[in-house]
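One chain given next:
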Amino acid sequence: MTTLVFVHGWSVTSTSTYGQLPQQLQQLAANAGLALTLADIRLSEYVSFDDAVTMPDLVRAFDHALRDLHLLDAGFACVTHSSGGPVVREWLRAQRDKPATHSTIRLSHLVMLAPANFGSALAQLGKSMLGRLKSWFAGVEPGQRILDWLELGSAESLSLNLDYIHSDDPLKRGQFLFVLTGDRPDRKLYDHLNSYTGEDGSDGVVRIAASNLNAHHAVLSPQVGARGAVDTLELNLSRGPRCAFKLIAGAAHSGDDLGIMTSAAPATVQAILRCLSIRSTDDYVALCDAFERENAARDADKVELEPAGPFAPRVHIHDPRSLLIVRLTDEVGEPLTGAGFLLTAGVQASADLLPEGFMLDRQANSKQSATISLFLDHSLLAGDSRVADPRNTRKTLRPAAASHRPYGASVQPRDLGGLVHHALAKSAAGDDLFAILGPHQTTVLDVVLPRKVHEGVFRLTGKLTPQDFSKPVAGPVID
C-alpha cells in the first residue's frame, strides 16, 4: 500500500491526538487485504494555534512536507480529522490550479473523520474572550486566521465548497473521497456556557450537515421579464459530485470515550478500512450505496435517552438536519446588509405557516453580515410520522407532523427608495425550496436582487446656463 498520512485538526499540540487509531489500522489492515506497515504511516504535526498562520500557509507547508517524504510511487492516502479535511482539500485545489508551484504527488484516498468542510458554529466561540482564555491557559494562541476560515459562511470556506460543487467529479481523476462523522455529542463534554457543544444534529463540534460533501448550490435570481411591485426570483439548482458519506453511530467529535478518532472504536476502524480498500469507480459507487442504506437504518432509530441521574432521562430525537447558508447580494455583487430574509410556507406564502420547531439555530458570519447560516430540522419540514417512546411504544414522544410545502422565501431590503435602491422580492410561486434541501446536507443559497437605478443618477441637458441639480428628481427606473 502507498504511504498513509494522518492530518489532525485545529489547535492540536501533540500527536497523542491520534490515539491508537494508526496502530489499530495497521493491525487490522491485513484482514482487509491491505499491506500496511507502521513504516508506511506518517503523523502530521502542523501548527494551527498561531494567529499569524493562514490556510494558504498550511497548504504551502503541507506540500513541502510531502516532498520531503520522497515517496517511491509518488502517491499517498490520507486520513484527516476535523479541520484537517479542509486543509487537504485546499491543497488538492492548489495542486490543480497551481501546478507550477505545487507537487505532482498523487492523493488516491482521502478519508475525512468529522471534517469541518462547511465550518463549525463553535468557531465564533473560539474567537471570543472565553476561547482566548482557554488558549492562554494552555500556552497557545487561538489560531485566529484558521478560525476565520472555519466560521460558518466564511468567504474562504464557501469558495472551496462552491468550487467542489461546480468542478469535475474527483472520480475522473482517480481520487476517492470519503466523509465519516459521529452522530451525536459526548454528553460528558457538554459546556454549559455554550449549547453548541451539546447540539443534536452534530458531534459536539461540527454539525453532521457541515461535514457532508453531498452539497447543493441554489440561486434565486431575477425572473426575466417579470413585472410588478414585488420582484420575482427564479430558482436554479446545482448538485455537487456524489461523495461516500457514513454516520458512525454513537461517535462524537473528540474525547477518550466516544471520540471518533482517539477512542478508535471498531466501527470507525472498519469504516476506514472499507474506504481504503476501494480501487475502482464501481467499488466506490457500491460503497456509497451501502453507506446510504446504513445511514437510513441509523436514522430510523432516532430516539436517544440520555441518563439524568435520579431524574427521568432526557429525550433526544435525532432528526436529520439541513444547513442552509444564505448569501444576500444584488446583481452587481453588493451585499444586502440589513435586509430581512424570511422563509415562507404554503400556497399563501406565509411565514406564519412554517412548522413549529423547524428553525434550530441562526448565525450570521462576523465578517460578512449578509451571509446567514440557518440550521433546519429536515424531518419537520418534510413531514414526519409519529415518534414512539422506545420504553413503551404505545406512548408518543412526538405526534405526526404534516408537511407545510411548498416552501418559499421573501426578502425585504433596507433601502426601498432613493436614486439607487432595491425592491421587495420573493421566490416564484411554482418553486418549492424544499427541493434544495437534503437530510444531513448543506445548501448554499445565493439570493440575488435587481439593483434599481433611476434615470436621475445621470442626465444630459441642452441648457447651457448654470443649473442646480443638488436635489435631483429620481425619474423612472432604467431598464
Observations:
- The chain is about 25% helix and 25% strand.
- The chain has a mean pLDDT of 91.
- Residues 281-300 form the longest helix (20 residues).
